[in-house]
Amino acid sequence: MAAVETERIGRVCAAICLLSVCSLCTGHTRDRQVLIELNPGSPSPPPGDLLHARAVGDNDTLHFLFCSQGAPTLLLVHTNTSFSTVKVCLHVDSTTKPSTHEPSDWCSPDVNFLFLSQVNWAQFNDRNHSGGLTVEPESSVLYSTAVVFNRLLEYDDINDTADPTSDLFPPYDLQDFRWSRLNLSGLTALLCGNTAASSNGSLCLQLSLFETEGRGQHWPRLLHTANSSQLRVWLDGVLPRATRSRFLLELQSVGGASPLNRVEVHRSIDDEFTPSIFKVSQWISALNDSSDVLGFVQWKPVAYRQADPALEDAAPCRHSEPRPQSGEAVAAVSGLIRAFYKEPEATGLNGAAGGRRLAARRLFLTTGHRHDGGWFGNSHDPPAAGRDLRLHPEEGGGNGLRANQLMAVFDHVTSLCVSQLGLRRLLNMFLPDVTHCKMTSCL
């Protein structure tokens, strides 16, 4: 253990989630105008930041909300109008409403036009009220889904099986992390945090939004469109608690009508951008007659041990089956989920695609395989300065609303994963290659 305590993981990229809309119910938007505002209307820095981005198309809008109050959460709402707005009206009373507005004005679209320009921060920070954050007009909402980054877990893989055991170290609850302020740079926002008890490295999340189509420069050469957002997650300088530690990242996907309830694996030939990887994983929902617009999450099951990897740095990744979880438990750890979803109870598959009910499932993603020696192989060499896990998603899949939990399992050092979550029409089961994912944990 002494050797372990003196070794820090130089820079570990733990993959995670890329939310994106890959196909919309009407037409195809090539370009969007993205407008971003951070903590709109807050008189002082709040306990956790709230970012709102509107990606406006010709006849629709994608609302991305990224919040570090509690467990970091990314919420995506798709509407069928270019004029939809996000509004916060959290149980305003005489002690919290602005002195210049009556309650009716405080909650009016005029006050909140385009951005969250008037937020009841006292109520939002309290995190005891549900249903206070809405997208208006509510009838324009086609789909909503969110990803919550809940916990980071670790276990000692003594037998080198790459299978999580019940003998886990105490988890890192991300809702209890000390999160930095969101650092905005153009269409990118960076968030890093660590435990309050120590400075044992940090977990970072980087959100990127796009106004047009493009592709990443490094494996797996992520392809994005104006309908995409990417969220990369990595560990930096984390001190493992065992000689053969593997990490798990617990993710929860939240929504209303059609839950992400199964993962499908398909053959994929994309050797130009992801050499030697011929499979794609899709976290999808069951078909739902209430809407032809559903979301999906995709990734390529590959991890890279270096930030600038060679082919020999690739490692396989695995996933578990999604499992149900209490919707109320999800809302309890995320201020954004509590504010947006009105009914934080686990529900059936009923409800409109744009509904705001909440249920949950969880999934595990694993890097490595049995007897691979973890990140150190059989040599037990110290970790490299940077290690990357990358997932590369492919064509379409279905994913819905409702809450699901994803657990991503990392090796001794964790890596950087990006996966894609998007929307599609049921009649268009497979879309052009619009997503690529880097991975160690992915949704």
Mean pLDDT: 66
Low-confidence parts = 1-27, 90-118, 344-355, 375-419, 421-443
- Per DSSP, the total helix count is 5
- Count of individual beta strands: 28
Helix fraction, binned, reads under 10%
Coarse structural class? mainly beta
Write down the domain tally: 2
Question: What profile does the largest beta sheet have?
Answer: 11 strands, mixed
Shape: globular
Strand content: 25-35%
How far apart, in Å, are the first and last alpha carbons?
33 Å
Provide the gyration radius in Å: 21 Å
Overview of the structural elements:
It is a single chain. A hairpin with a 5-residue loop joins strand 4 and strand 5. This protein folds into two domains: 298 residues, no CATH class; 110 residues, no CATH class. The strands form seven sheets. Strands 2, 3, 4, 5, 8, 9, 17, 21, 22, 25 and 27 form an eleven-stranded mixed β-sheet that branches. The chain is mostly beta strands and 443 residues long.
